[in-house]
Known about the structure:
By secondary structure, chain A is α+β, with helices and mostly antiparallel strands. Chain A has helices spanning 16-26, 55-67, 96-108, 129-139, 162-168, and strands at residues 2-11, 30-38, 44-53, 71-77, 82-93, 112-116, 120-127, 144-149, 153-156. The model of chain A has no long low-confidence stretch (mean pLDDT 93).
Amino acid sequence: MDQYILSVLVNNHSGVLSRIAGLFSRRGYNIDSLSVGETENPEVSRMTIAVRGDTNVLEQITKQLEKQIDVKHVQVLHPREGIFRELVMVKINAPQSVRAIVVELSDIFRAKILDVDTETVTVEITGDPDKVDAFFRLVEPYGIREIVRTGLTAVGRGNQTINDIMTSR
Amino acid sequence: MKLTGAQIFIECLKEQKVDTVFGFPGGSVLNIYDELYRHQDEIRHILTSHEQGAAHAADGYARATGKVGVCIATSGPGATNLVTGIAAAYMDSVPMVAFTGNVPLSLLGKDSFQEVDIAGITMPVTKHNYIVKDVTKLGDIIREAFYIAREGRPGPVLIDIPKDITTSSAEYTYCAPREIIRDTGRFGDDDIARAVSIIQQSKRPYIYAGGGVTNSDASKELLAFAELIKAPVGCSLMGQSCFPAYHEQYTGMIGMHGTKVSNMAVSESDLLIVVGARFSDRVVSKADRFARKAKILHIDIDPAEINKNIQTYHHILGDVKVILTQLTKNLEPKDRAKWIDQIVRWKQEYPLRVTGHNRRAKDIIETLSELTDHRAIITTEVGQHQIWAAQYYGYYLPRSFISSGGLGAMGFGTGASIGAKLGRPDRKVVNIAGDGSFRMNCNEVATAAHYRIPIVVLIMNNKTLGMVRQWQTLFFDKRYSQTDLDHLIDWVKLAEAFSAVGYRLPMDGDIKTVLEKALSETDRPVVVDCEIPRDDKVLPMVPPGAAIEDLILELDLEN
């Protein structure tokens, strides 16, 4: 099963999130992550949904989403056409004996140290899922105490915007 | 002009030309009911016994007329009582607008008395729903709801109105209802041309028609199309009555309880033309064994139905009526005598046969069909009687078979028959019921009696939950768990208690005499208790997991 990233423009009012989430759960589609936020137009929100399935499932998800009255546009972002980022905060075991190594690893990954205490360092890392996973692998030996992820967010490359695509249809 | 929310509600119903609504009052909708009282000359309100009956009545009204059915309930239990009715309409793509009251905005979310999140509850069973939080938006929400209910693939829409919205005021100006334009924007000449060439090449085309033909009012176009290409036609349960049963090319129902001819024709065809249907599991049974020799040409208005259950070879997205017209215009007549001969031979070889004593319900329904000139509106409950009503009546006119196909809601029929009769007073309306289903919502006979609505209810009384019993007989070694209904109910007395007319039709009684009496009532509902054998089966039947051509045709009924 492959992962696909959907960018979905929806009306920005209460109840839309549960409508979309409900659609996924009742039709049995698997969501890896979902993030929502307002767009340049305050009446419209953009959901970035990472889903798993085959192309038939993807076709069904897209069509079912498009049937929702509150959904204005659905775009499937292919890896080559999109930029994908996720923000993650990680609390890592870092007593004095290993703190320098943890800080060094963070630097290499351009992760930001947000907080330091006697036993831990809390780090913010932004990147695509591969980068984030690589960072986790390297700091894991020291002990990861807590992970908070925003979920994937994505935007298409180039001059074209999702609004251009929507209005050209 | 400035109007209260309740007044805007009335004005918007009038804009939409709503003349009949079904409902039940309560605290949160008091202001709405106060306005309904003032406008009772313009909008007829039918007070049902239970909100579920109101929802089914709105549904029956919509299916019989093609107009939007409207129902109203108060907050909390009133709203939840609508849910089964809304779900039934959703599964069968019926245009409906349901209004619910709710507690005032300031009390929402506080577990107030009779508060329930009906928008949340109905999200999966409505096409769309709203909570009105601003009285200035009420009018446009109602207008949009009526549009959404009918546009594209129809469906129910719910509007939840907090009580203070009905008392606060906003500016109102009349707005003509937005016109529903037939969907022709998603197919082009090349889609039609490709379909035409696929049809021309086919030697054994078969048409599988569904409820979309009815929704699109495309019965005439389907008939012209089928006659031109000489393709036999079968209907899903939802498609019943969209193609005339007397027609030589008609092969009966398709699917789990379809005819042997329909199911064999699907399996032998080289092109299956699917019109306004969705490949329900009750039609397809095993997807990988369905129509294996056929290319599939799917014509439907809902893109999400394409490739959902069955992969298609070619599809055309849009309004069925327009598409069939265009296909017919572009096709040459073709002689498919060999295929039609084959179908005719199968029809002789495999009639819908019943053996021995397994025929009482058939005789009753066939007699009913003759007495009503094959032109009554039949509503049903859910179970054996429902399938018999689909198999044996033989519908000549569209919008004549009104049944909860997708949801399969027992208790649907009495309410639906009331709605259908009010929508089509010119037609006879008969609810073919089972004793189990009828009991679920027989309270609506009181409604019919009060409003002098002359529906006829035929209870196919086998004193058991027949369809479940049939499965228990066939697949559960006759362990009849909780399906006996030999309760001591006197249905005639019950009818009379509701001020309806009751008749008994015992097993050896003369069907014609009793039905003639029942059908002659003009201002009172009639309930006929028709005694039928307990172990009559619905046949043919595709056993679970089998391909649709592998039907059980007959059973040794002594076992």
